[in-house]
Amino acid sequence: MNGAVIDAAGLQQLVSTLIDRGYRVIGPTKSEIAIVLAEIGSADDLPRGWGVDVGPGFYRLRQRSDDAAFGHSAGPQSWKQFLHPVRQKVWSSDGDDPEEPPRYAFLGVRGCDLAAIATLDGVLGKGAHPDQNFVGRLRGIFVVAVNCTEPGGLCFCASMGTGPAVGAGYDLALTERVGTHGTHYVVDIGTDEGADVLDAIAHRDADPAEIASARDDVAEAAHHMGRAMPDTNLRNLLIESRESPHWDEVASRCLTCGNCTMVCPTCFCTSVQDTTDLSGEHAERWMEWASCFEFDFTFIHEGSVRQSGSSRYRHWLTHKLSTWHDQFGTSGCVGCGRCIAWCPTGIDITEEMATFSELADAGDD
């Protein structure tokens, strides 16, 4: 940490400064049922005083006893939707020039989601054939990250190495401190642009005790995760478990609805749809999110390759935690817990991996 401190008024200034510099500021906001990401006009739009209770297949808002703006864990959305939109036009017969991507400032990016952005960049931005739409959007973002001091009930970022402290990739990072003298934020500077923005808002130097206290609380949060992955080589475990009967047991609970892939901050698969008007004079091509749980996702020739629910779930989990390493050199999971919360039947990815680990240890995989 670089030792700067801003107060609630400074957070307001931060939002207004970013807007004045041409950014569309996106941050957490409170809807009727969830904390959702949306464009904000001031820090007053942040969900001060609201937290969430989460569990397998469960997510509820709850009022906090303080005015923390970032006192909540991951909601149903991730920052992926702004970098890799749900639906985007690829081509038009009218020859329309592609729209200039907006300049986003992301306010409140957690360690898990910052890692997810880097993971998506490894897939869509740094491959042999980069997605230029993604690259253009990513190039223009300003990131204000937030260190976690209060993990949610489904968080397991510590066991995935992505949190609770944020990693590289931010311009500014905040650690929220709520106390009797009001809320303030210890600030870490990640880039020259971040330093320039901080210089434009009211701040002061932090004293060593403030820096140490913030650092200690973030480190302590790693010991209070709601979940954890088993301490084993997950990649090899899934390779060894490819014929396990447990896949059928999981499939008996899985609806193959695709919720887990829709809320996942790193799932990137898409399909392409071509449309024409009734006259046939105008045509468009659109790219939209797809899910490996869709029956037609692997359709070739006369049918789908993965026709059973167990084979589709096995593909999703094995790709996420195992073969992603082979393709992209990292795990595809960042430990945010969204897939657990938003699974209608409460399937818990950490519990399933623990079961595979126990079966392997017992020699019954």
* E-strand count: 15
Radius of gyration from CA coordinates = 22 Å
Fraction in helix: 25-40%
Overall 3D shape: globular
Element pattern in H and E: EHEEEEHEEHHEHEEHEHHHHEEEEHHH
As laid out across the biggest beta sheet, the strand order is 3-2-7-8-9-10-1-11
Describe the fold and architecture.
The chain is of the alpha+beta class and 365 residues long. It has 13 helices and 15 strands. Helix 8 packs across helix 11 and helix 8 packs across helix 13. The chain is 33% helix and 22% strand. The N and C termini lie far apart (46 Å). The mean pLDDT is 93. The chain has 2 domains: 4-221, no CATH class; 234-267 and 293-361, no CATH class. The chain has helices at 8-20, 80-83, 111-125, 132-139, 157-160, 192-199, 208-221, 234-240, 246-251, 259-263, 309-328, 338-341, 349-361; strands at residues 4-7, 24-30, 35-39, 50-55, 58-63, 87-92, 104-109, 142-146, 172-179, 182-189, 204-205, 270-276, 283-289, 299-300, 303-304. The strands form 4 sheets. It has an 8-stranded mixed β-sheet with strand order 3-2-7-8-9-10-1-11, with helices on both faces. A 3-stranded antiparallel β-sheet has the order 6-13-12, with no helix packed on it. The protein has a two-stranded antiparallel sheet with strand order 4-5. The radius of gyration is 22 Å and the shape is globular.
